[in-house]
Amino acid sequence: MINSNAYKQYQYNSIMSASPERLMIMLFEGAIKFVKLARKNIAEDDIASANYNISRAQDIIAELECSLDMSYDLSENLMEIYGFLYGQLVDANIKKDVDTLDIVESMLSELKDTWGEACLKLKKNA
């Protein structure tokens, strides 16, 4: 069994030493994880846990939105996408709708993959 304090320290160090690009991917991965957990919670009729996990995904989307540098044209498009995702999460939380969570998860996965590809291209061109 892993010592929980050692694991928490490892997680903390992983976050603190990650590049900004890796942190973005970690945020997307976290949001996807919470959406998947919420879907499972809804299937198990665990409404309190579903609410908690959807709220965690919303927090991550809000953080992504706040971190945008609005001096780039792309940021306005991302702001709209993040706003849409946040609204979908609110709707899914109210209705406990797994179909809406599926849409959000799919979009988050595409954004994560796109971000990962962009990071690879930047590294190759550097």
Tell how many strands the DSSP assignment holds: 0
Q: How can the largest sheet be summarized?
A: none
Taking Cα atoms only, what radius of gyration do you get, to the nearest Å?
A: 16 Å
Euclidean distance between termini CA atoms? 42 Å
Kindly state the mean pLDDT as a whole number? Answer: 90
Portion in beta strands: under 5%
- Given as residue ranges, the uncertain stretches (5+ residues, pLDDT < 50) are none
Question: How many DSSP H or I helices?
Answer: 5
Helix percentage: over 70%
Summing up helix and strand content along with how strands pair, one would put the structural category as mainly alpha
Q: What form results from the Cα inertia axes?
A: globular
Write up what this structure looks like.
The longest helix has 28 residues, at 98-125. Helix content is 86%, strand content 0%. It is mainly α and 126 residues long. The mean pLDDT is 90. It has helices at residues 4-16, 20-43, 47-66, 73-95, 98-125.
Put the structure in a nutshell.
This protein is about 85% helix and about 0% strand. With about 130 residues, the protein is mainly alpha-helical.
What are its keywords?
mainly alpha; 5 helices; 126 residues
Give the SSE layout.
Elements: H1 4-16, H2 20-43, H3 47-66, H4 73-95, H5 98-125
Helix pairs in contact: 2-3, 2-5, 3-4, 4-5
